[in-house]
Amino acid sequence: MLYTPPIARLVEELTRLPGVGPKTAQRLAFHLLKVPPEEARSLAEAIVEAREKVTFCARCFNFAQGELCEFCMDTRRDPTLVCVVERPQDIVAVERTGEFRGLYHVLGGAISPIDGIGPEELRVRELLDRVRKEDIREIIVATNPRVEGEATAVYLANLLRPLGVKATRIASGLPVGGDLEYADEITLGRALKGRQEL
Prior knowledge:
The protein has 198 residues and is of the alpha/beta class. The chain has helices at 5-14, 22-34, 37-53, 70-73, 88-97, 124-133, 147-160, 185-193; strands spanning 55-56, 63-64, 78-85, 102-106, 138-141, 166-169. The chain contains eight helices and six strands. The chain has a four-stranded parallel β-sheet. It has a two-stranded antiparallel ribbon with strand order 1-2.
């Protein structure tokens, strides 16, 4: 590399971030070198603080600062309703809707045999333990609508059915602003099946 060792190291470390290639890493590195030292230090301190203080919630495996996350500690939420997601960042997407007032469970991924991820690598056992110990009446499976997410949803439904808990799947269909001619057959088919009365 044509940079001094500290810059080369910074660029190399930045390329480890998801979606950051060599050119973006260079731009970020040069930007960080131009900002006042206190801004660069503040960023570094924020990274260190997040790594040191953020853990996983002991109940749902969302990010937390302490034993439980903000949702599990919120007594106003419905503890009988649990939304199962793949990753903590999926909770943010669900919360943005303003439509869900239950609790969450983060699996830590989706079943993907090609990637070597089976149910044992996910937090399925912990979900089943919650169902047995807590008064959960419905599990909403909100895994991503791709092959791995669908396989995970079917797997969970088969495990939950004998436990007497209602298992539902989030609906999928056409996005607002989308055109029918660009929709794939599966998406359009689900939109037709999930139609509602006007």
